[in-house]
Amino acid sequence: MGRILGRILWAAISLAAALSLAAVAQSRGEPVNSTWLVIASVCTYLVGYRFYASWVAARVMALDDKRATPAERLRDGHDFEPTNKWIVFGHHFAAIAGPGPLVGPTLAAQFGYLPGFLWIVIGATLGGAVQDFVILFGSIRRDGKSLGQIAREEVGRVGGFTALVTVLLIMIILLAVIGLVVVNALKGSPWGTFTIVATMPIAVFMGLYLRFWRPGKVVETSLIGFVLVMASVFGGQIVAQSPALAPWFTYSGAALAAGLIVYGFFSSALPVWLLLAPRGYLSTFVKLGVVVLLAVGILFLRPELKLPAFTRFVDGTGPIFAGKIFPFCFITIACGAVSGFHSLISSGTTPKLLARERHALSVGYGSMLLESFVAVMALIAAASLQPGVFFAVNSPAGVVGATPDAAVATISGWGFPVTAADMQILARDAGEQTLFYRTGGAPSLALGMAQIFVSSGGGRALLAFWYHFAIMFEALFILTTLDSGTRVGRFMLQDMLGQVWPKWGQTNWKPGMLTTSAVIVAAWGYFLYQGVVDPLGGINSLWPLFGIANQLLAAVALCVGTTILIKTHGAKYMWVTCVPLIWLVVVCFTAGWQKIFSPLPALGFLAQADQLAAGPQNSTTAALVFNARLDAAVTGIFLVLVATILIDSIRVWIGILGGTRKAKSTETPFVPSRLAEEL
Amino acid sequence: MTRLWKEFVRIVAGVVAELSDQNAYQRHLEAHGAVHSPDEWRRFQDENSASQSRRPRCC
Q1: Is B55 touching A (CB cutoff 8 A)?
Q2: Torsions phi, psi of A304, nearest 5?
Q3: A652, A563 contact by CB (below 8 A)
């Protein structure tokens, strides 16, 4: 009886997924209610989890709860510790959820809500979650080793070294692009700038409080920090309205970029307990709280999507970034569907905490589905804005015109009516001087979130508060990623230099620490600055570069995953990782090729450099030409690095499948678990 | 229902304890056979910072 009811239930869920996907896909002309997107995504996730992921867990991975995990075998009370499944789930989700799933879908909404939505749901279910799950499985079976170590042992030394260099380069581009998102959100905004600047002394205060006054009281310290941050959001309004104080917190993009670079250096060099750790605690709790708040807001208010299913920009002429729907929608969404970066988390702390092998299913696969749902919510928030407002906020002056009148004329001419007066009223309600040219995705997402929160009560008078609350929320965890990313990049560089001269590998050696911190900060700072001075707004160049890099890292992870599956089962199940791998390789190499060689200056870096070199010259032209060529070179390096790993992996696969190479797996031998009944 | 609610609260509290390093600190105390004190917390922070600062946060 129970079995029959179960089948009926799953048939109903599958039917609901199919019908709501059909409703979303078929709808044209009429506004679509976001409820359809929520039902379609949740039901698809459930079906994917129950049938596909469970099948992969049982047949492909043969997860076995009788087999002791590294957490049990290597238990040391420090890194390795068997932990409750849901606690590991929360920990893993907090580590994988960053600004990408919020910003990427917002930017990709320039194609309309439908392409991004379908890729977020399908990409996560068949690609992103599979990648996270397979790498987590691979790491559990290899003593919790990192992706780089597994790549070196399973594929070879070339693959391992290339993976390390790829990760470092990706980190640099990532930090630059998320820095640009913050700069674009704060430029000319005394309210936002005050709030974010205030979080720095608040974090230091929290660090001192936790270290000396109330040692060990992390939750208490985080609550105090949260109250202070909320006070700074209110205080920002007073600052913005004060003719004496506002100029102190009103900066250009270049000045904010310089401030961020200096901040990045100090955050990398200062003791972890003083800045990084307290900011990390605070941003994690705020992030999880706001995600829950947004989910509740969307579920209860069910906003209508005002953006159409498709816009005219599927042809590649979009104002936010250039390029056609294929491949650039898939590159832009990034972390909401597939994120190579997750493989670093799946082969980092998480495998050292899992008490049972089967927990990898909910933690590895399930967490990515939740991240994908966050991306769906961000898309809903952005798509619930009036299209004219969405494009006015996100389009750079270089595309739509340098004055508000020119901008609204251009945007209205695209069929998305908006007036300068509408934008002025909206800016005033949001507590900003202007909302034109706020590229980067964060301001339009903050507006969408603020409108959802305002609709739940408090009226329009609270729009300014919620807008700046959302900006604070986005900037807070972007800065946390910036802090920790700079430091991780520094350690990676020190590790690499330490291979040549061991002294550089000593992380407490001050000259080495300061030099490598400066190198990493200078590297991402350079790309950040070039994004700030880019006449097309920077996002057009940097976000696709980041997207390509991130998806290429996913390709590296899937190469490693495929090698593991081939060594275990031969060719039988290699399609599980090979299908998403082939898709990502095609998407990334197409996007990379177009970004380098497209004859369209808005799209191709080399064409852009040629156009700038041939046009009127001024003091910045030479730098812009150099930057465009540098971006082309970086894209080329990414493609070469991943092609190297891919070729190396294919060489190994052909050898194993052809019988000329022994399928030597580095999987640790079976040890029976004693914890089976405990957790 | 009460049992489910209690279980939910227990899990949320567990996640908060893990995210705030309270669990890691407890493990540290057990591993060193120590009891909580300001000096022990600072020792934990210093030991923990090495692994914490090598932990990337995702994009």
Answers
A1: yes
A2: -85, 145
A3: yes
Q: What is the CATH number of the domain that holds A52?
A: 1.20.1740.10
Q: Residue A679 carries which DSSP code?
A: -
A 571-610: CB under 8 A from B = none
A448-460 confidence digits (pLDDT tens):
999 999 987 777 7
Q: Which residues of A touch B42 (CB under 8 A)?
A: 211, 215, 273
Taking an 8 Å cut-off on Cβ atoms, the answer to whether A100 and B42 are in contact is no
A286 lies in a domain? yes
Among A233-247, A323-337, B37-51, which is the least confidently predicted range?
Answer: B37-51
Nearest to A219 among B20, B45, B54 (CB): B20
Q: With contact defined as beta carbons under 8 Å apart, do B40 and B29 qualify?
A: yes
**How do residues A218-274 score in pLDDT, each as one tens digit?**
999 999 999 999 999 999 999 999 999 999 999 999 999 999 999 999 888 788 889
How much is the pLDDT for A678?
Answer: 59
- Whether residues A281 and B16 touch (CB distance < 8 A) is answered with no
Domain span including residue A106: 2-188+251-657
Distance CA A337, CA A334 (A): 6
Q: What residues of chain A, 421 to 450, have a C-beta less than 8 Å from chain B?
A: none
Per DSSP (E only), the strands in A249-394 are: 304-305
Q: How many CB atoms lie within 10 A of CB A495?
A: 17
Cis amide prior to A396 (ω within 30 degrees):
no
Angstroms from A18 CA to nearest CA on chain B: 31
ipTM of the complex in this document? 0.92
Beta strands in A414-535 (DSSP E): none
**Which residue type does A475 have?**
A
Domains identified in chain A, total number: 1
pLDDT digits (tens, 9 = 90+) for A499-552: 888 888 887 788 988 999 999 999 999 999 999 988 887 888 899 999 999 998
Whether A340 contacts chain B with CB within 8 A: no
Q: What is the CA angle B47-B50-B56, rounded to 5?
A: 140
Please write the tens of the pLDDT for every residue from A416-469.
999 999 999 999 999 999 999 999 999 999 999 999 999 877 777 899 999 999
Burial group, residue A511, by CB count within 10 angstroms (0-12, 13-18, 19+):
exposed
pTM of the model: 0.93
Q: Which residue has the tokens 């620490």?
A: A513
**Residue A21 neighbours by CB under 8 Å, 6+ apart:** A40, A44
Residues from chain B that touch A86, judged by Cβ atoms under 8 A, are 11, 14-15
**A206 part of a folded domain:** no
A126 found inside a domain? yes
Residue A215 domain-assigned? Answer: no
